[in-house]
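We both want to read discrete structure tokens more fluently, so let's practise on a single case. Once you have written the record down, we can walk along the chain together.
***
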Amino acid sequence: MRLYFIHDSLLLNSNAKTSVDKKILELITTARVGHLATAASNLQPYLTPVVFIALQNSILIPLDDKPKIIDVNRLRRVRNIEENPKVSFLVDHYDEDWTYLWFVMIIGNAKLIQLNRKSERKTKEMTKIRNMFLKKYSQYTKIGIGKTYIKLIIEKTIYWKYMDKQ
């Protein structure tokens, strides 16, 4: 008999910082791509594949220097977050052997953050974030990471993994 495991952790106070379960953090930390879902004030969903780093209570997504048709500040995901900060973020793993399937959906609020060198603390924070992105994505040795990030503050995680009944 096959069982499916679903983990759902809800944060009661949306302003508090929540920690993602260590098991879930390990899964998403190794994933190379996630999918950011935003919606404008008219509630039209918009889905974007993104690179990211996972922290204990947030996800950081760079608005990097890859060539873009429009200015970073005019990207649909940026405009949507400015209108409606509620977002979802999906990381999944597919395999032809379905016993290896899993997904993590993160629900939360996003905000745009600028990392400028205004203080020593910010400089240390920028360096740490930059190093985390460089370690995960070697492509950033050739393309600028950028100074604007989407920070997703985690409010709820939904986790599913295929499991056989033991």
